[in-house]
Design a protein that fits this description.
The protein is mainly alpha-helical and 506 residues long. The chain has 21 helices and four strands. Bound molecules: fe (iii) ion (FE) and zinc ion (ZN).
Length: 506
């Protein structure tokens, strides 16, 4: 290339960036260089059929990203200098971002690893470049979240050892196992799982509540990294849709394989989002919308349109999407109840919803809340007030697939816990739903290897047999990071600040 590359147009430069890289290997056969992109059964006849809608060249990529970084760090600096944390609605809010840092930031890093791996192992150069750029984006997301949220670590508890906790704390095995499952699949399944099912179909259910939730609650730090990630996200969603269409167009035999992955990853992603449902309905002092409303808007409406569009390729909507819709009026209440019972073992606080919050829930869930959940929360609040705050000391049974304690209910009977089981090689495995059981039954050899936190505690692999030993092994500060918000160091500090502020205002 002796010509000045600046004289080439964008399309030519992109072609040089990508197509020039896909030479046929000669020292080794191609199948040995790319051992992973055939065993899943996906047939690709023409890798050049891949259309990258962005055609982003490396120089343009680095220029855009550098500009975004400059803006982001300017805002973070001023947030820190101006004590931005004082502007949040209420310190209960901080517990939502404890979940974000411990549960989501590590997934960004896992995504970085996953896309680096897949970028290496797809023999088509178009998707390879797209995956590599996404890998760099994801590393940036992890870094910006760590830098931004480190400010909260100076004042609030539960942020100090998020990386360690991700590998050990029971409820964080829910997000961790989700991503580990994707990363240990083949490259096409990984991209279907993460780029399509999670980033294309379900992403708004994660992004909107956290970002709008942050904006509503005065957390400008989180809003800033959210906006900085958003333009990357648009690219990631396009990759998700592109890869699905590419596989479906290449060979008809790919359709049932892709359909099964969509069924599986819809359900895994949906179960993971039950943490977000709880956050939206219970943890944001100033609510954005209810989980049920978000589900209707971002799944029932948007998802229906998407799958109508994909029908011409022979795809149907994910299996069990109707169950998720049936569960929309109970999901957040069931999950919050689990955490309220196990706050003594969690690195964030829970509380009894205040009266106006119970009223909001009654209004948003007219068919279920007053009948089933309000009496429960009233009772728990009375008990706590009488000095009988109950922390469940028994370890719960976990679902082998999603790893969430078995607190979900029968699709057609919200008063009855849903149990499913399978026997594999004389061992019995337990599931929270038909969706999770199906996933296991398809690949039992994979899921019998699940690292289930409760089982591992019983096996003696988590620091000891006592809760105190286990918390120490989690690096969780007992009496500080865990238990009720009321009376916690976070709450006392916040009360002190609020008192000082009103004194200063007098
Ligand atoms: Fe990301
Ligand atoms: Zn499950």
């Amino acid at each position: 290339m002796s010509e000045n590359p600046k004289k080439l147009n964008l399309k030519q430069r992109y072609k040089l960036l990508t197509r020039g890289l896909d030479w046929e290997t000669t020292y080794q056969p191609m199948d040995k260089v790319f051992p992973f992109d055939t065993f899943e059964g996906i047939k690709i006849h023409d890798w050049d059929g891949w259309e990258d809608p962005f055609r982003l060249t490396m120089d343009a990529y680095w220029k855009y990203q550098a500009e975004k970084e400059r803006k982001l760090y300017a805002v973070i600096d001023s947030f820190a200098q101006n004590n931005g944390h004082m502007g949040i609605t209420d310190a209960r809010y901080v517990n939502a971002i404890k979940i974000l840092l411990t549960g989501v930031t590590s997934l960004e890093y896992a995504a970085h690893r996953g896309f680096s791996h897949v970028g290496r192992h797809l023999r088509g150069v178009g998707p390879r470049v797209a995956c590599q750029m996404q890998a760099i984006d994801e590393l940036r997301h992890a870094q910006t979240q760590i830098h931004t949220l480190s400010h909260y670590n100076r004042y609030f508890d539960g942020f100090h050892d998020w990386r360690h906790m991700y590998d050990r704390v029971w409820y964080l095995s829910v997000p961790k196992s989700f991503f580990d499952d994707a990363m240990t699949a083949g490259p096409f399944e990984f991209v279907t799982a993460i780029s399509f099912s999670f980033e294309y179909v379900l992403t708004n259910l994660l992004f909107v509540p956290f970002m709008s939730g942050a904006a509503y609650n005065g957390d400008m730090a989180t809003v800033t990294f959210g906006f900085s990630a958003q333009s990357d996200e648009a690219r990631h969603m396009t990759l998700g849709l592109e890869v699905i269409k590419f596989m479906l167009e290449q060979d008809e035999a790919n359709v049932p394989i892709v359909q099964r992955w969509i069924d599986k990853w819809f359900w895994r992603g949906y179960r993971l989002l039950s943490l977000v449902a709880m956050m939206m309905d219970y943890m944001l002092p100033k609510r954005v919308m209810s989980w049920a409303e978000a589900w209707e808007m971002y799944y029932e409406d948007a998802g229906a349109a998407l799958f109508e569009d994909l029908e011409r390729y022979g795809l149907r909507p994910p299996k069990y999407a109707d169950i998720a819709t049936k569960e929309k009026n109970r999901l957040s209440h069931e999950v919050w109840s689990i955490f309220y019972n196990y706050t003594h073992a969690a690195a964030f606080h829970t509380w009894s919803p205040e009266d106006n919050e119970l009223d909001w829930l009654s209004e948003k869930y007219p068919d279920t809340f007053d009948k089933m959940y309000r009496p429960r929360f009233d009772y728990w609040r009375e008990q706590a007030a009488a000095g009988n705050r109950f922390y469940n000391q028994a370890l719960p049974q976990l679902c082998t697939t999603c790893q969430i304690p078995m607190g979900f209910t029968e699709p057609d009977d919200p008063t009855k816990i849903c149990f499913r089981e399978s026997v594999f090689k004389h061992e019995r495995y337990h599931f929270c739903s038909d969706g999770c059981k199906d996933i296991f039954d398809w690949e039992p050899e994979k899921y019998v290897q699940s690292w289930l936190p409760v089982h591992e505690i019983f096996k003696g692999n988590c620091g000891g047999t006592d809760l105190k030993d286990v918390l120490k092994w989690y690096h969780l500060n007992d009496g500080v990071d865990n238990m009720d918000y009321e009376g916690s160091p976070d709450q006392r500090l916040w009360a002190e600040w609020t008192a000082n502020r009103s004194k200063a205002a007098e």
